[in-house]
Structure formats: structure tokens, C-alpha cells
Amino acid sequence: MALEGGCIYLSQLKAPTKEVESLKKDCRVTQRRLKALLASGTLPGKVGAWENETPHEGHHGRGKGDVFPMWLEDDGMDGGRRHAKVFCNEARKFHKPNSFALVNLIGVASDQSCSSSGQQLHGCVLRSGYFSHIHVSTSLIKFYVKMQSFSDAQKLFVEIPEPNVVTWNTMISGYVHAGHFRNALSFFISLERSHVFADEFSFTSALSACSQLSLFKLGSSIHCKTVKLGMANGTVVANCLIDMYGKCDSVEHAVSVFYESIDKDVISWNSVIAASANNGHIGLAYKFLQLMPNPDIVSYNGLLNGIAQVGNMGDAVQVLSSLPSPNSSSWNSVITGFVNRKRAREALDMFCKMHSRNVEMDEFTYSIILDGIAGLSALTWGMLIHCCAIKCGLDASVVVGSALIDMYSKCGQVKDAEPVFLALPNKNLVSWNAMISGYACNGGSAQVIHLFELLKMDRDMHPDCITFLNLLSACSHNQIPLEVAIRYFESMIHEYKIAPSVEHCCSMIRLMGQKGELWRAERMIHELGFESFGVVWRALLGACGTKADLQVAETAAAKAIELESDEDYVYVMMSNMYASFGRWEDANVTRSLMSTKRVRKEAGSSLIATDVALF
């Protein structure tokens, strides 16, 4: 029997009467038996026919457990939005549903990404007094997590007096799936400090977050905990450990976990192959591939990706050609390899071959090739690929959208990037950063600050180190008042708890140099502990050039030469500064040192795009 919509009320069922009457005795028994009846097809008629029925007399007098949204367990995924609306309307007419019904309804709202229905059901939960029911409150948290409304999910979580491990796992896994790995680990650490015991799912989610952040020490400590609890040799945990160690560049640990794993499955083999190959151990990866009982396309892709990563592109193309049915991941690995080696023309050639062979392209294919085109500033090619993405319906993807924003911005067409950004239905921090960076690189300081302020207003997203780097870069390139930039810099450290990087320091040095605050910039280098980084002294030397402060320039040049092997910029800069001060003898000595040390000024190069050709 195919269900088309609506909610089942026991009093509405006409036949088989004996079965229905016997089922009324117990809610849980009713639920199980009705499921069986649905599966056997013994309930006649279509549920959708009941949606518009007027309740008959006595309809208001049903017991508490008589509302059963059985469509949720059958075909509720089809038309779930309509079903949830019908349920809410019916629930308002009669009485409160039971907790089981609410859990399933909220699940449908979550699976269908139906925000309005979920919020109505939240209100229904509060009115019916079921929020204290742990399964209901957990399903609400899962709904808000699915809707990427983490602030609401966290508020609900805090209100639960005694969250169980499933509630904790809902928050942790939700953050992991959304890419908020540090938040996920923060929740995991809080779970460890609570009286609730973490389970296998808790550990695998935490290990996934460690993998993405390459947190070897934390991942190792979690490994130790799983050993103590007897979980480490389980297949699922072991697979996560192999992946984590592989992404933390510790092949030895990954292989050790693999050998200690009791029940190896295909994921175990694929994980150890990928861990070996991605860390440059191609021979070891090939050995595991030969030992694997039944390697699949994922196994070969792991080897192929490793070969492409180390730059053996000839071998990578050969392996790709030898695969009987390469999928999009196979092609993506080779295209990524070419893009990472700055060989965008060959990447474009592979993209065209992939298209001509009718291999389905995914969002990562477009993201990779757009990244390569952005490096070439090949606008015509970028527009052609944008058209392909629209044709495939991938232009609304946040991955493709972010790559398009970056490509248009690097091609100097930030106005074409704006509509792409505005049209994205689900913006993430990457897309925000891409747009902010685009404005920063194209002189739009006012737009950068405006977007930054809008981002701050979003409850579920917070600026990260890249956001602030783009913000400070915009300030340094667009004559923003120094005090404004300092306020942003201090906000990054104190409000958002982001430790400044060398890049942040260099941006501040350029800003201070523009305002003649060179001594302040030098003091900041020491205060932040970056005096051992040659790049900050080069930045200070460049700032001296704008204000012609020879004393600070000599200090910066000496430190840069001491710490860096790339000396051409330093010598040329100092020679020019000496000449500008009329110290020709010092300028000649500097030029002579360049000849003695065989330091050559590197020649610049540029590309010109004509139609779809690059010269």
C-alpha cells in the first residue's frame, strides 16, 4: 500500500475492525502492529484521502495515544513538508500528540530541511510539556543542527537538565559535519568532563575533527582513551584512527593501528592505502593495494591521489588511463595535481577530456579547475566553466560558489563576484572570506568593513584568522586609519581569542609604516615573538621604503639577511635607499656584495589572455 500523505487516527480506520480495536489497548503495541499492517498492505484506502475529512461526532474524545503519524515511518520523506503541516493543523484541532509522534515529526522536518514546520513543532513541544522528555529535546537539537542554527541548538542543549550521550553526540557530530571542528572538540572535552560516558560514536566524531585539524597530540590522547575502554581495535574506531594518523603525517602509527585492528573491512584497507600514499609512501601504498582482497575504485583513487600529490603527474595520468572505470574522484585527483604544480593548462586539458568522456563532474571538479583558472586570471575560461556549472545545477553549491567568487575577484571582476555571493542560499565562512578577500584585493575597503560587520551579526558564524587577515590587508592597502585597524587587531586577539600569525603581523607592519610608526612596528615584532621570522623583517624593510627611515631599514635588512636565504629583495631595497639618501658609496658596496654572493634580482613575468589562449 502506498501512502500519499496525512496522519492516521485509529477512529478513522474502517477495516480490519477487530485488528484495530485490539490495537487500541496499548500505544506502543499499536505502533508496532500498525507498522506490520502497513507493510502487509492489509489496511485499505489511501491516507491522503483523510486529510480533508471533517471529524465525525465523538472525534474529540480520543485517548492520549491515538495520534500516530505512520506515514513518517513509511514514505514520509516524500512530501514531508505537507505532512508536517497537516499534522500541525490536526493537532491544533484535537489534543497533544505523544512523544513518539513528536520525535518522528521533528525528524521529518529535519530530513526535509523544513524550517517553519520544525519551529511550529518546537512550539508544540513547549505547549504540550514534552521538552523535558530527553528523546524529544534531542530530536529538536538535531533539527536545529541540521538547519545550521547552532546558536539555537546550543541554547536548547544548555536547558536540558541531564543530557545523555546521544544528545552530546548530536552536538559534536553536527559541528563536525558543518566543518566547525574546534567547536566539536570543545563539546567533546566538555563531555569527557561530565558524568556522562562517551561512546564509540563520540570518539569517532572527535577523531574526525582531529583529522581535519591535524591535531596529533589530541588525537593520540583520544587513542589512549579508546585503548583503556577497549574500543581501539573495533573496526569503526580503528578506521578513524588510521585516517587521523594519516592526516597528521604519522604513517607509522596508522600502519600500526591497521595491523592491530581485529576485523578489517574495505574502509580499513582504503584508509591505510590513502594514509601511505598521501604521505609520499607510494611503494607502501602499492603493497597494501596488492594485499587487499578485493580492491575497489576508492582503493585505486587513494594510490592515484598520492602519486598526484608528490608531483609524479606522468605516472598519475598513466594510472588514470589504466583504470577500467575511473570516476569523478579519479579525475579530480589528477586535475588537483596539475593545479597544485601550477600547471593549469594541463589541468584544463584534463577537464576537457573528462567532459568529452561524459564523466559526471561534481562540485569539487569545478572548485579545483576554477582555482587553477584564478591563478592564471583567465577570465574567458572562468566564464565558460561558470556556464557549465549553471548547466549542471551546481552554481548554487557553496563550494562552487566560493570558487567562482575567488576566480572573478582574482580576474579583477569583483562586480561579477557580488551576484554569485548574494545568490548563494547557504553561505559558509569560506564564501564570506572569499568575498571579503575579493573586495580587499580590488580596493573595496568600505565593502570589506561592511561585509565584516554583517558577518559579526550572524549568530552561527564567527570571523576566523583568514577573515581578519583579509580585513587587515584591506586596511593596509586602502589607507584606513591606523587606530581602526588596531581596534580590529585587538578585537581578534581579545574578543575572538585568535592568536596573531606572521601574516597578521606583516599587515600591521605595512599599516604602521604608512603612518610613519616604524619604531612601533619594530616593537610589535618583539612583543608578538616573531623576531625569528625573516618575512616580518622584510615587511618592515618594505615599510621603511615608504617613509625613508634608513636606521630602521638597516636593522631590518641585517635581520632579514641573517634569517633568509632569499636576499635579492633586501639588497636591491637597501641599494635604492642608500641612493635616495645620496649615499652612493654604500649603494655601490651593496651592489658589489650582490655580485660577490651571486645574488640576482629575479625577473618578473606576466600572462596575457587572448580569447581562450594564454601567452
From TrEMBL:
It holds the Pfam family E_motif. NCBIfam families: PPR. The keyword Cell division does not apply. PPR repeats lie at residues 164-198, 327-361. Keywords: Repeat. It comes from Flemingia macrophylla. This is Pentatricopeptide repeat-containing protein.
